[in-house]
Amino acid sequence: MKKRTYFILFCCCLIGLAIWGLCGRRHGGHQNVVPVLNTDSLFVDLNKDKVEKRTAMADRYFTNLWNERILNGVVLYAEEGQVLYKKAFGWRNLVKQQDSLRVDDQFQLASVSKMFTAEAIMLLHSQGKLDYDDLVTKYIPEFPYKGITIRHLLNHRSGLSRYETLADEHWPDRGIAVDNEDIVKLYAQYKPDPYNQPDVTFHYTNINYALLANIVERVSGQHFEDFMQQQIFEPLGMTRSYIFSMRNSKRVQPHVSTDVQGHIMLSKGPKRAEDDYLNGVMGDKMMYSTVDDLYKFCLAVEHNTFLPDSIQQKAFVPGSPEWKSGENYGFGWRMNEKHPGVVFHFGWWKGYRSFFIRDLEKHRVLIVLTNTSSSAVGEELWDFVNDTTVRLPESCPIEN
After folding, report:
1. By the 8 A CB rule, do 154 and 118 touch?
2. Hey, which residues are catalytic here?
3. Cβ distance 102 to 88 under 8 Å?
4. Which residues contact 224 (CB under 8 A, 6 or more apart)?
5. This model's pTM is above 0.70
6. Quick one: how far is CA 242 from the chain centroid?
7. How far is residue 109's CA from residue 62's CA, in Å, rounded to a whole number?
8. How far apart are CA 137 and CA 295, in angstroms?
9. Measured between alpha carbons, how far is 168 from 146 in angstroms, rounded to an integer?
10. Which of 35, 118, 232, 343 could form a disulfide with 333 if both were Cys (CB 3.0 to 4.6 A apart)?
11. In which band, very low, low, confident or very high, does the pLDDT at 150 lie, cut at 50, 70 and 90?
12. In this structure, which topology does domain 33-385 adopt according to CATH?
């Protein structure tokens, strides 16, 4: 009799947990509960000599970049689920060469932000709240361009022209930030000619991911920065990540308030990057994070602990049948014919550069976050990831 009673109680507990989980997904709050990922179970017993060789190679390469004044930032390299190398090089303030960078410092990700905007759209899709082939005008009815779908935005196939050019021509006061809703109003008012009709060709432009942020807001009923915090960063344990928002104060300041200051590299030396009226636009940029938080995201994506495999893998499917100059794009991730089996994204914006490379076949991850606008490490990172001979750039490019 006792066994039967215990069994009934056990079944009731299971049913209760299931109902609780469904309610959590249907109502507000944290709709995507992510199990804690035990990374120990993912580790492959790498050969000790191989680990030491790769670690020494990484340290030699990135230390040389620092010594040559090419790198100022933080590096993380992982292989087969193990972080083999993590180190900070340089200064938070390059002008005064003070406040050494730390491995947990937050950097502006620039266009690497796009993979997280795409993840937000995929999350809403998994919840049945939108479809990739829905028209943009279903959610933004005032948008004046017909035939553009969410998928076209994700794959950079909308044909839309740059919002930066539009704002530069028509935004009246550079001392006041333009935001995502303002951008929609500018397109509705001035209707700039698109580069192409929708779905004709791949053309990378930031307006696509700015509009995706608008759609996230209108579908979820939350501010974009709040949605990202509650639905992605917190569930994944990304405690050092956030979306920079100018929603409450649109007045452009001399500099963005952050510990790690962005720098423009000039011939006469580094200069602190100024705040910009375009910093009010989110989705295509304006995410801040650390190498550790980005690696948490990487593990969740690789092992499908955030979204099911059937949904997550769509991010890595080339969205264009043609390869323009060897380039292609999935949902927030780049592909290149020169690097089969690799997905990646680089970013640049107002004093920061970021590099995120995932080799899906060799299970390698390289994340480099820098607080300088000019960095010569871009092409050379492929040598390190691909095990080819590492070349050091001859000099660091500067801006006039």
Report:
1. yes
2. 111
3. yes
4. 180, 213, 216, 217, 243, 245, 282, 283
5. yes
6. 11
7. 20
8. 35
9. 24
10. 343
11. very high
12. Beta-lactamase (3.40.710)
Residue 317: C-alpha distances to residues 4, 16, 298, 330, 353 (Å): 51, 38, 17, 5, 25
* Geometric angle at alpha carbon 69, from 63 and 70, rounded to 5°: 80
How many alpha carbons fall within 13 Å on the CB side of residue 88?
17
> Is residue 273 packed enough to be buried (19+ CB in 10 Å), middle (13-18) or exposed (0-12)?
buried
> Are 201 and 320 spatial neighbours (Cβ–Cβ below 8 Å)?
yes
- Cβ(117)–Cβ(130) under 8 Å? no
Tokens of 337: 């014919």
Neighbour count for residue 151 (Cβ, 10 Å): 19
The alpha helices in 42-179, defined as continuous H runs, are 48-67, 114-126, 136-139, 150-154, 163-170
- Of 173, 189, 129, 126, which Cα lies nearest the Cα of 331? 126
Of 86 and 394, the structure prediction assigns the larger pLDDT to 86
Q: In this model, does residue 287 exceed pLDDT 90?
A: yes
Q: What is residue 223's three-state secondary structure?
A: coil
Residue keyed to tokens 């960063």: 233
Strand segments, DSSP code E, in 171-266 are 242-243, 263-266
- Each domain of the chain, given as residue ranges in start order, spans 33-385
- 396 neighbors 383 (Cβ within 8 angstroms): no
Q: How confident is the model at residue 392 (pLDDT cuts 50, 70, 90)?
A: very low
The residue type of 291 is V
